[in-house]
Amino acid sequence: SCEQAARLSSMAMEQPLGCGNFNRQIEFLRRAARKVPEVLEQERD
Amino acid sequence: MAAQDDQAQSLEAHRKYLQRYALFHLHDASLAEDAVQDTLIAALAQLDRFQGRSQLRTWLTGILKHKIIDLTRSRGRGLPVDAISLGEEGASSADPFNAKGKWIDPPADWGMPDAALESNQFWQVYQDCCQRMSKRDALVFSMREVMGLSSEEICKNIGITTTNLHVILFRARLSLRACMNKNWFGAGHQ
User: Once rounded to an integer, what is the mean pLDDT over residues A1-22?
Assistant: First the structure.
């Protein structure tokens, strides 16, 4: 089940326990999330 | 008196940044305004404790994080345990799997996506996609991924179990991925 694979991959980000692309994409979106404060800072006041 | 005015003014200079930060997490302009106001009042009262080890803005952001969590708790944004299955939060989280658990539309390769992080337009789409999640999912996602709170801290602060947290984060990640896929990576921006 791809759903089980995706669910377990997401859970593995929180605690020790198309899918390859999915995992790379959610890792990328996590990296993006960590940059949000920096991006908000750069927006003009 | 003049010294106090100067202090208030130095804090006031950070208000707009703090509002953007609060709005990103709370998705509610009025709540964000409250959080920022509380932050600036608390900062003014504690200014003698600011020792310049970090930048003033970093210190203020730390206070604001706590205010956001406090507001979340006091306004009853705790998550009811029964609101945690996939597909219960409207169109933003349409189930991407069929009845057999296979992808309806298997994720395609995004190539080398990190170049997009330099694009202002990318961040506009990213913020829009975060706003399309339910407020609760977006808040939990941003507490975890943007504020960097641990799973334990989030569960304790908003009163959910670890299992609830995993379901919410999974739903948020699916929603954000689908939205970015449609509005950025599938829209010829690469």
Answer: 93
